[in-house]
Amino acid sequence: MTEPHLLPMPKGDRRLILSAGALLILLALLPLVAPAQAIDKLTQLGIYVLLAVMWNLLAGYAGLVSVGQQAFVGLGGYAMVRLVEAGLGPFPALVLAPFLVALVAWPLAWFVLRLRLGEFAIAMWVIAEVFRGLVMFDPLVQGETGTSVLALNAIDADTRRLAIYLLSLVAASAALAGSFVLLRGRLGAEAQAIRDDEEAAASVGVSTFRVKRLIFVAAAAGCALAGTLWLASAITFQPRTGFGIQWTVFMLFMVLTGGLGTFLGPVVGAVLLMGLQEAFGDFGAWYLFGVGALSVAFALALPGGLVGLWSARRGREPLSMRRRLSAGEG
Amino acid sequence: MQALLSGQGLVKSFGRLRAVDGVDIAVHPGEALGIVGPNGAGKTTLFGALAGAFPLSAGTIRLDGAAITALPAARRCALGIARTHQIPRPFLGLSVFENVQVAARAGGALDADASVGTAAGILSRTGLHDLANRPAGALGLLDRKRLELARALATQPRVLLLDEIGGGLTEAELEQLVALILGLKAQGLTIVWIEHILHALLQVIDRLVCMAQGRVLAEGAPQTVMADAQVRAAYLGSDPE
């Protein structure tokens, strides 16, 4: 008998990763042929994927259900506005702002991660509102009025579109690849242990606070990056939009319909959200209401989401985080 | 001889209830200590206090003579204190193997490669090998109890706190469990075992503590403690035979 070892990644998963790589190259070349409007939509899709991956990392793998992630989306946009005001170019500001937001999230983690479940969820929402209120006091933002990153207008429109598209593509792929590596390692197993039973996790030696903080700060930075990418394409920063609850509604929708705690769920959910937005986006508030209702319906009737359905049919989750031991059945 | 793990003047109050009410306890290296007592005597609360599941109301806990009272549970686990839970608490979303491996890496400080071999060995030893890749949520009670033990062992403990690990087992399963625990003891592992199934407990332990109402009622050689009139009244609730 051979030594016990981990089974290699299933062939299907390896094929999936190779196809994803090929798709990425195609997407990077797409601006050569695709119309500007399509590129803008795909930019938006990239931002949605990034947001959904972050929320899934928090809620699906670490059990941290936040309804206040818009705090970091908005803060990312605001940090970019301030960095540009300080004289930085818009694209360096776009990349640097998420790191500043991570610096804010780090000490914040110390307070909010002591709270459990519903308390944590609500605290995050309150924090988002507090951030919005504080940002509105900034004379640059002028309350509800907001401000524009006019430096972006100095860049030729086609160049700007291409740059933001590629950045959003890189951000979404990096979030997926990064979380894949992170979750398949020790940290992923520890996070899931905490999600399942925090006290038991501590009793087998998991430094629960350290693990949760790492994921919290990473997700904050990821959401901030989504905020700066959004601002780069929208140009105007308004507190009501930047810190809007709709970000959380979208994240919840994408993760719940795609599959909470599944690796591909956020991607599936993001594509679904884009599709719905194309079809029903003109209905305004009713559209948002429908998105919310559909999230609830999925949570109740199909808690594994679309990827869960797919896994059940195939008997295995695609790109599962599970490490399998060589011997033993099942 | 210095105690491996000890508690002095341990008190844990929940509101007005003093679940543990001034307990002194010590276990020496290589020793197997049994704890008996009626339900509500504070046995599980005592384990929680030793393992760091919650802060104490009063008292000092020492490992190798050094106070560890202020250390969180994860740090105590890393120093070699492992526990099982009376009602098993598996990580339901992880596989059986992953449950054990995460403990080997976090509490046992093993690297990725070493943790695989160690976890596989422990799964064989606890009879879970064939279920390694099953989700822990799919296990029945007996296998969940085995998983509690496997996970605790994976943290490479120096002292193992077993909380009613024998409850609900058949006679044959109990025999296997006793053999396993005796094997661990023979390897030099220090054991503290809370158990109601006396004939199993008595096969393993060197010394016995009886608790009632948050206090230590009697302590000493197992037969002496079990013969104690106070113990018989509190624990067995009646006269012998």
Q: In terms of per-residue confidence, which ranges of chain B show pLDDT below 50 for 5 or more consecutive residues?
A: none
In CATH, the topology of the largest domain in chain B is named Rossmann fold
Q: What structural class results from the helix and strand content of chain A? A: mainly alpha
Number of strands of chain B: 10
> Helix tally of chain A?
14
The total domain count of chain B is 2
Give the terminus-to-terminus CA distance of chain B. 38 Å
Q: Most extensive chain contact?
A: A-B, 32 and 46 residues
Question: Counting H and I runs of at least 4 residues, what is the number of helices of chain B?
Answer: 9
Question: Which features would summarize this protein structure in a list?
Answer:
heterodimer, A: 330 residues, mainly alpha, two-stranded antiparallel sheet, 2 strands, globular, B: 241 residues, alpha/beta, Rossmann fold, 2 domains, six-stranded mixed β-sheet, four-stranded antiparallel β-sheet, 9 helices, 10 strands
Secondary structure topology:
The complex is a heterodimer of chains A (330) and B (241).
Chain A: H1 11-29, H2 36-62, H3 70-85, H4 90-112, H5 117-137, E1 147-148, H6 157-184, H7 186-196, H8 198-203, H9 208-234, E2 236-237, H10 239-242, H11 246-258, H12 265-280, H13 285-301, H14 305-314
Antiparallel strand pairs in A: 1-2
Helix pairs in contact in A: 2-6, 2-7, 2-9, 2-11, 2-12, 3-4, 3-5, 3-9, 4-9, 6-9, 7-9, 11-12, 11-13, 11-14
Chain B: E1 5-14, E2 17-27, E3 32-36, H1 43-51, E4 58-63, E5 66-67, H2 73-79, E6 81-83, H3 96-106, H4 112-125, H5 141-154, E7 159-163, H6 171-186, E8 190-194, H7 198-204, E9 207-212, E10 215-220, H8 222-227, H9 229-236
Parallel strand pairs in B: 3-8, 3-9, 6-7, 7-8
Antiparallel strand pairs in B: 1-2, 1-4, 4-5, 9-10
